[in-house]
């Protein structure tokens, strides 16, 4: 992997193929390899870029005492600048979808298109006023859980709680993919796990109202209903937004249904290209 040196850490990333840049940002407690089915599919036509977000994968721990979606977006900006990427296509999953939304809000004309898998605006997926979050904060309980069961046990408890509450096979409908996600979380030190969780919990999402970047939102059938509703809000807010739902899949929709996810992504990008050519003629 290549390395991007920052003042407070090193971001590891990987590039494959040539062509228009297609940048993938993974979900929480995962790493860039979560996009492997998409890299293998799209690298023949695009220059694919994956990165390991702070606290994850080969990037691992950094010196920052606190993480935030804004900080992760700063890192994405730095990577795009380092690679001199103009008008990239941005593809984010879960936490990565938040990073992409933050980037689009900051730079509404900089991306040529966006794909948001397992798209979510906030955690929990019901927007709580920022002032109230400190009063209802789950962070003390999270810290206790991490001290007692570590990252893997805490992640497993979160999955069990969501499934018990919603009745949905939320994370993945495939036991192997679910197990791999738990293994990935187990590799993250407890201190980093907490920082990642806090970044998700504290994020105040942008409205994206009227954003003109063509945006595709993709959810799995077994996604939590509140998350689906937030995805619909995103697709409705942007000027050119589309939301699709894939059957037999959960939150990790790109892994549960990789061929279907690749197909709808390719169709979407073809339509974006066709619309761009039409508008320029």
Automatic annotation (TrEMBL):
Residues 22-263 form the AB hydrolase-1 domain. One of its GO terms (molecular function) is hydrolase activity. Keywords: Hydrolase. The keyword Hydrolase applies. The keyword rRNA-binding does not apply. Signal peptide: none annotated. Pfam families: Abhydrolase_6 (PF12697). GO terms for cellular component: membrane. This is Alpha/beta hydrolase fold protein. It comes from Natrinema limicola JCM 13563. The lineage of its organism: Archaea, Methanobacteriati, Methanobacteriota, Stenosarchaea group, Halobacteria.
């Amino acid at each position: 992997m290549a390395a991007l040196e920052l003042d407070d850490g090193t971001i590891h990333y990987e590039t494959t193929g040539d062509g228009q840049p297609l940048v993938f940002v993974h979900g929480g407690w995962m790493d860039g390899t979560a996009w492997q089915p998409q890299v293998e599919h799209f690298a023949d036509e695009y220059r694919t870029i994956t990165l390991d977000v702070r606290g994850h994968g080969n990037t691992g721990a950094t010196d920052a005492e606190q993480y935030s979606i804004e900080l992760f977006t700063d890192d994405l900006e730095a990577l795009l600048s380092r690679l001199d990427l103009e008008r990239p296509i941005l593809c984010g999953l879960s936490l990565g979808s938040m990073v992409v939304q933050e980037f689009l809000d900051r730079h509404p004309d900089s991306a040529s298109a966006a794909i948001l898998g397992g798209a979510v605006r906030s955690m929990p997926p019901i927007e709580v006023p920022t002032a109230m979050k400190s009063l209802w904060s789950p962070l003390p309980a999270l810290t206790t859980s991490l001290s007692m069961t570590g990252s893997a046990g805490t992640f497993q408890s979160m999955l069990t709680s969501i499934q018990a509450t919603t009745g949905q096979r939320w994370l993945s409908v495939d036991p192997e993919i679910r197990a791999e996600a738990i293994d990935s979380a187990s590799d993250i030190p407890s201190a980093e796990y907490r920082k990642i969780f806090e970044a998700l919990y504290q994020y105040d999402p942008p409205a994206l109202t009227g954003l003109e970047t063509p945006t595709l939102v993709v959810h799995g059938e077994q996604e939590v209903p509140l998350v689906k509703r937030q995805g619909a809000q995103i697709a409705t807010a942007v000027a050119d937004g589309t939301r699709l739902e894939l059957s037999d899949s959960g939150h990790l929709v790109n892994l549960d249904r990789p061929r279907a996810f690749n197909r709808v992504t390719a169709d979407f990008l073809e339509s974006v290209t066709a619309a761009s050519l039409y508008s320029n003629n």
